[in-house]
Amino acid sequence: MSAPNNPEKQPLRQRPNRIEKRQQREELILERAGELIAEYGFFELKMSDLARACDISVGTLYAHFASKEDLLLGLAILAGQKRAGFFDYARAHDGSAMEKFIVASLLDIRFSIDHPQWFEAEYLALAPSIWQRATPSHHQSQLAGIGRITEMFQSFLSDAADELGVSGDVIAQTRNLNLGSWGLSFGMNALALSEITDRHYGTELRSNAIDIFCDSLADLLAGAGWHVDDARQIVRDLAARYADLK
After folding, report:
1. pTM for this one?
2. Rounded distance between C-alpha atoms, residue 58 and residue 46, angstroms
3. Predicted confidence band at 10 (pLDDT cuts at 50, 70, 90)?
4. Which residues of 56-68 are buried (b: 16+ CB within 10 A; e: fewer)?
């Protein structure tokens, strides 16, 4: 028979401190909010329902997020963090800087398509009617997250200057391309999630968003100076490897 455990010899588990508890509760709130929004939509979300889903009081909920606008920015920040995790695949890609930029662009749109509730939070959080009503700290955190992702894309393009035939001020000459590719990805997702496009494309755009995006991105890069043989096929091959292009 084994000897009973001696409680004096058991390692003590550190209890989470107040800051850690607050952070854990905030993460729970955002995860539950994401689930409820995915099911009912953001505008149907009630703070009382969210508090109940988290097994906390409404007062505790408001202590974390002073308004629905604050909650939305919190969701957008969390979405950005989840999105940023995908970009490690782009950084580790065993190809040129331009290919890393393409892979990151493909992963970006793939994440939005696979997680429409997170994309919707990011999309809505950009509206002035939302962020102007949120607390400055949440807005600044949102901007900081977007800034880090933007800088990553910009670094790929700066490293790809030779492939683009860029000389002189690399940052200035690649900034518009960075913005243009972001607009293409963001707009493609917004259109794919909207029923407005059904009148013109049926479900074609929604079911073939990545396929269409591949050709559009290849054309944009070719127009910006990326001269390679069969740019569309290169982008599609990378999509097949990283974005599960069917």
Report:
1. 0.84
2. 10
3. low
4. beeeebeebbeeb
